[in-house]
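Loading example: each entry is read as four labelled lines plus one structure line.
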Amino acid sequence: MADSINFLYPEKWLLKASVGDRITCELRMRIIAGLIESGAILSENKLAADFSASRSPVREALKKLASENIIRLERMGAVVIGLTEKDINEIYDVRLLIESFVFERLVRIDTEELTKELSKILEMMQVAIKYRDADEFSYQDLLFHETIIRSVNHSHILMIWNNLKPVMESFILLSMRGRFQETYNDFTRIMENHALYIEAIKAKDRSLMIQSLHKNFDDVQGKVDDLWMSQQMLAKGVGLNND
Amino acid sequence: MADSINFLYPEKWLLKASVGDRITCELRMRIIAGLIESGAILSENKLAADFSASRSPVREALKKLASENIIRLERMGAVVIGLTEKDINEIYDVRLLIESFVFERLVRIDTEELTKELSKILEMMQVAIKYRDADEFSYQDLLFHETIIRSVNHSHILMIWNNLKPVMESFILLSMRGRFQETYNDFTRIMENHALYIEAIKAKDRSLMIQSLHKNFDDVQGKVDDLWMSQQMLAKGVGLNND
DNA sequence: TTTATAATACTTGTATACAAGTGTACTTGA
DNA sequence: TCAAGTACACTTGTATACAAGTATTATAAA
């Protein structure tokens, strides 16, 4: 693969991944980071050359990214859509929707094991903060919510999550990397929100859960204008390093 | 493509489709109809031979079906999961979830044009019933709900619908074909439910909408045990014709 | 008879080749 | 200068080839 530019996607997450998956993840990161600007037209042949690969894995990547709505496959070339602020708001709409749904089921089952698992993840997040590991923190943050969703055993709700996850992952990765550099004390509040989430599950308190969800999301959404956009600029200029 | 067996998917819906799409749709139908039983192992090479195509479009198809959770890609071969009763229930969970969400937005906008469009679709459905055209009826039925969802311009909710749609399409196609043969008078009630839905939108009456949605879904779900399972048997034995 | 090893017949993932179609740019004619 | 047509470069979709890996089966040794 081309090494003229640093990879944005954590390489350690791709240890056993295929070339197709690598291209998918890296392309997604570059699009969401704004390195590949929206409106740009991607050619299978050109991408294959850029990544020193054949068209097969590139095709696979484009199909996936199209299903995530960050590119649009047309007759001649794939047009980059990118991630707009509207998309980010919509994604949180969907997260609120499915996590609320999940919580409804949650209050009806035994959550002993779940909350223990969540506490473990919370401590992992704390360690990640301590060692300024943005990628690890992002991973655990996503895992936190995925663990909750998985706990109710609803395969179609999980499917929605899985379709949403890659784009969220990229977004959160970029966002957290920026925060670790600039607004480090944000993390105190993020941790508090997550702790509150666990409390809501333990107490089976619906309104408390909604409250913590909103807090968490408002926290992120409020930052979109300034932090996110500046982050996009940052990514364009720097090309973050992660090995 | 092999013509040793009749195709389950309407050929007229595939007029401009690629080989990959054809294989995707046909495989999905056969899996959901139970022609390909759950637990079966699909080989890319074997499927390519069966459909007189190469591995490329078959691969594409398997990737898509895996994203729909009706097959599972493993190291050696793709394992058929199929559509269980649990899946059908879960799909309706999700439909209730997103259509409720959509309705919340709907009550805040002008629905003049939407209801007119829906009335048109309703009349199309009536014609389809009159001429015993199960495929056309299924198409309009799905279009009815998709039109409602599209009207609120929420691309991520639409994404959820799009991911769900193919499986629902297959299921509804098979279900409706069976009903046209066996329980023809079901359609009176289906039409009433849809008319009620339009009324709910016009009146912006939330509880009326939920009521019609539940009626519509309960109607379908109640039939699952008997009708759906018998339909599966039917499909296995007959191999429906549609040209 | 059982166990270890080797041959085989699969599998996936990737590369490459080719056909058919589409847009662009250039040439030719007025 | 402008219009129509033609060649070319580039696109997708599909077929085929190949490498690397995995289960299975057959063979050989104990």
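The radius of gyration of chain B is 18 Å.
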